[in-house]
Each structure stands twice: as structure tokens, then as C-alpha cells.
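Running this now, will post back.
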Amino acid sequence: MAGETPAVPVFACVYEGHSFADLLPFFISWHPTLRMIRSLCLACVVVIAVATTCFADAGTMKLAEMVKYSDLIVVGKVVKARVDGKRIAELAVSQTLKGDPSLKRIRFYAGPSWACDVSDAVEGETGIFFLQRYLTDDPAEKSLPQTDSDGIRVFFLTHSGRGRLVIHHIDGEDFVYARRKGGDVKFPVNLGFARYPKPEDLDLGLIRATDLVAYVRSRR
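Update: finished.
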């Protein structure tokens, strides 16, 4: 009606003179849905930051370097994924490719020791395991006992857990999955792919376990 003052939203009166950018933090902190969206966004930023840091820190290691830096390389089967409730796996050794051949049972840490460590184990799996006596060159760490309570040697997986190459039995043959580009382990080109599990992805292939064993023996 003529002479009446038009209705104005309350928040427009209270926050008159402020831009939307000025008010946005207030609405985010006030509205539950917006608070949840903010939390999810922050979580995504943290995940991306950690992933980027891990790629930079752990990086890619050549297979030849994994052989060089490993104190023990064996073919074996995980008989226990956890020992006494600890994240330590026990391995029955069937072949020793590098290191002490008298070790028929060994253990390794099957849990992360830092943010980018992917160490793990699955009971019953068979694989080629690249192992180190020490995680770092820290003298304090080297002074720690390297055997479990019952005298079995305990190792670390080389390259922050990436020295665990699981063997897959397919159509009567044993294979290890590998990537030519972008993987954590860089395999040499002379270790050719015997198969391509995904025809559309020629970067992913299967290397015969026997070829991989022969390569390790030749480089030790």
C-alpha cells in the first residue's frame, strides 16, 4: 500500500553494508549442512596433501635398487598375518634369492611405520618378499633387538611395504602384477609382460614369477 515501508529481510538489516564474501564464514559456521560440507572439504584437502607427500617421499624405486638395498629376498608363504596379536607376519621360506639361506621361518612388520608405509600381509598368500634388517640408518634403531621373543628374525619390507610382490596363480602359471608407468616399483623393460589382464590398459601387465626370480638372482 502507498506510504508503507517495503518489507526487508532481517539479516539484510543486521548485516547491511557487508558483502556476501564477508558473511559467508558466518553462514558456514551457523548452518549444520554447511558445517558438514566444510569438514568434508577440509578432509579432502588433507587426503590430497598426504597422498602428494607420500608420492614425493616414498616415490618410485627401480627393481634393481630394491634388490640392492634388501638384506634378504625370499619366496615364501604367509602362515600367520598376525603374531600374538601384533602386526607382525610370519613367513615360511621356500626359496632364498638373496641373504642367509638357513632362515626357513622369518617375520616382518605387517603394519605401517609411518604415513606412507603400505606394509601388510594376508594369511595364505605367496609372494616374493624384499626385506631389510632396519627401516632407517638411525643408530638408535639399529641398537634395537632384531628378533622376536621366540628367537625368530624380524625384518621390514623394503621400500615402505612395496617390497611385497604377491604371486597370483592363473591358468596353471604364477604371475606378479606390474606397471610400466606410475607404479611404486619400476620394472625393467627386459622383464616383459606375459599377459595383459585389462586389454584397454597396456600399462598394466603380468610378469611370470619365474622370470622375476631369475632377474633377482642375476642382480644379487
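Residues 126 and 169 are 9 Å apart (CA to CA). More later if anyone needs it.
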